[in-house]
Write a structure and sequence with these properties.
Strand content: under 5%
Number of domains: 2
Number of strands: 0
Helix content: 55-70%
């Protein structure tokens, strides 16, 4: 018979995923309904199921893999490394965890669009063309694991405070839902620092070749893959206009 503590943990993980979906629906569904002319799209069951699973058992499975890999790798590093990190402030550790994770997300995402082997997993996510909050976790399991494990493993190896890592994961998960919501929101010039829903929606346009960053879009600026939705729409308008003139 299963241990009572195992059942309790499994139930808590299950409930955590349900709470995440409910909070996302409570926040983003009304916003899409109120702010967008067409209103909110009706959530698909498969998207809600993916959102629940990946934010519950998916994350915990990733955490187990990360913990085991970090334990093995950390044993090969000088103890001075982790001691130095542990003496830094909470906010510095949180910032380092964020930057390390985002560098991985940007690099892996860019490679996923370049190499066929990775694209065959990542293309599942790009079936989301009409943006909606409920489709944020429409992903292949391999794509999800590689992103989550790669993003958080460096921080664990360095011994960064787990509270910092947990804070980043919570921020990143909810911000990911925002980025995939059908909200025509843009942060102006600040979108070159922090990604906006409008910027990420442009990435899901089949014609776009850029905007690979997760939260920190300045990585796209540095990597010369930043594509402004405004500039691209102007180019498309000019192109369409020239075609009309020629006809």
């Amino acid at each position: 018979m299963p241990n009572a503590s195992i059942i309790s943990t499994a139930a808590q993980i299950f409930l955590g995923g349900v709470i995440f979906v409910l909070l996302s629906a409570f926040i983003f569904w009304p916003l899409e309904e109120l702010l967008e002319e067409k209103g909110a799209s009706k959530p698909l069951f498969k998207d809600l199921a993916a959102l629940w699973f990946y934010q519950s058992y998916g994350l915990w499975t990733s955490a187990g893999i990360i913990y085991e890999l970090a334990y093995l790798i950390r044993g090969q590093l000088p103890p001075q490394w982790t001691q130095f990190v542990s003496h830094q402030s909470y906010w510095l550790q949180a910032t380092i965890a964020l930057v390390l994770a985002e560098v991985w997300v940007y690099s892996f995402h860019r490679l996923s669009h370049k190499f066929e082997f990775l694209w065959k997993f990542h293309k599942v996510h790009h079936t989301l063309v009409d943006m909606t909050w409920s489709g944020a976790s429409r992903q292949h399991p391999v794509d999800f694991l590689l992103i989550i494990v790669g993003a958080n493993l460096p921080a664990m190896v360095l011994g960064i405070d787990l509270k910092s890592i947990a804070a980043f994961i919570i921020l990143e998960r909810f911000y990911t839902v925002l980025l995939h919501s059908n909200l025509n929101l843009d942060w102006g010039w600040f979108s070159k620092v922090i990604a906006s829903p409008k910027l990420h929606a442009h990435h899901h346009n089949p014609k776009c070749r850029g905007n690979y960053a997760g939260i920190l879009s300045f990585l796209d600026v540095v990597g010369r893959t930043y594509r402004s939705p405004v500039e691209m729409s102007n180019v498309e308008s000019v192109t369409e206009g020239s075609r009309t003139d020629q006809s």
